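Preliminary data (for renewal application), P-hydroxybenzoic acid complex.
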Amino acid sequence: MRTQVAIIGAGPAGLLLGQLLQNAGISNVIVERRSGDYVLSRIRAGVLEEGTTRLLREAKVGQRMDAEGMVHHGVQIAFMDQIRRVDLERYADGKSVMVYGQTEVTRDLMEARAKAGAVSLYEIPDVSIHNVETDHPSLQFTVNGEKEILECDYIAGCDGFHGISRHAIPSEIRGEYEKVYPFGWLGVLSETPPVSSELIYGAHSKGFFLCSMRSLTRSRYYLEVPLTEKVEHWSDDRFWTELCSRMPESTASQLVSGPSIEKSIAPLRSFVVEPMQYGRLFLVGDAAHIVPPTGAKGLNLAASDVNYLFRILEKVYHAGRTDLLPRYSGLALDRIWKSQRFSWWMTSMLHRLSANPFDHRVQLAELDYFTGSDEGLRTLARNYVGLPYQDVG
Ligand code: FAS
Ligand code: PHB
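Predicted structure:
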């Protein structure tokens, strides 16, 4: 087999990159370890930055998002039994965010790819990466019991945190930066109307909570829980009672609870690998970085990586600009580290990181300052809607 760009992983990063390349007449093959249904079954992100929605529209997969997604012009921060609104329109130069689940983004991309007849190989568990230091890289794997070699010009490692791609960068070159948080997020999906028309991020002495949504009839809620917790310890009743106990009274009285249709605990970590390229291998999305979901950046950083790699590859194939290839890692990492900072900061400000009463009072002062002053609101809003993309040159 041969293609121009070989993509490992059919999550949002791999599918979005594949769709943009396909539309630009650049051939690509996606090789995915799991089944399509399994990929769709993972409940993950819910908030899209304008850069992400713009890219999805450019990839011609934004129609359902624009029809069913919810544009949010504000987000709310709850603490000390009060709620303060962060007016994104006012403090982020008129920008907004789109609430549209990652599952739907993935579904739209999968359907568009199938319609375009682009090659996606699912349930391939044994992909290996070869010759990335040469001009003839390839992937090897087994399809229907037959060994396959996929020769290509470039390899995009879109295989997530547990993928193989970053390990193809020699350890003496590869730098890894990690911070693991001493808690996780217990998430519940329910067919109930959201408690609020906008997301509510809450700090409480018992721990963080988040009120989000997937539609006007489907809600997504999270609670900070110790890493020792198991999802089987949490009945629906226990979850709703704990959530209400952390919310301001005025909000809790509005909550409509109901049976959970999905319940899971996700650990929180910050992680970055540098560089994000080696020879003809380029790391994209969670394969290169993980953020705590408090800043709603994970999926959006995958999209900005895709933007940079696609813009460069488009110029390589259409204008011979191979001089741009070495720029990818630096461009991506510049935005990644600023988003890592914001995600770490939001997590530190809203979670119980310390038992020291001094730290709690500093947290409250920080929440009061950043939600109670123009300059504080401006920095919060501009980071939340997403920092601008740079030109690739
Ligand atoms: P993904 O992990 O989505 O996709 C990688 C794909 O590669 C997977 O389909 C995997 O099966 C495949 N793969 C792995 N190894 C392979 C191999 N060897 N061969 C072939 N294929 C292979 N982000 C937010 O913004 N908000 C959130 O609330 C949020 N919640 C999250 C909850 C959880 C439990 C997790 C794990 C992540 C969450 N994220 C959240 C982040 C998440 O949305 C990611 O940022 C997003 O999925 C990134 O997309 P990809 O980079 O495509 O990686
Ligand atoms: C979600 O809806 O899943 C969600 C929204 C915002 C976040 C994290 C998760 O910051």
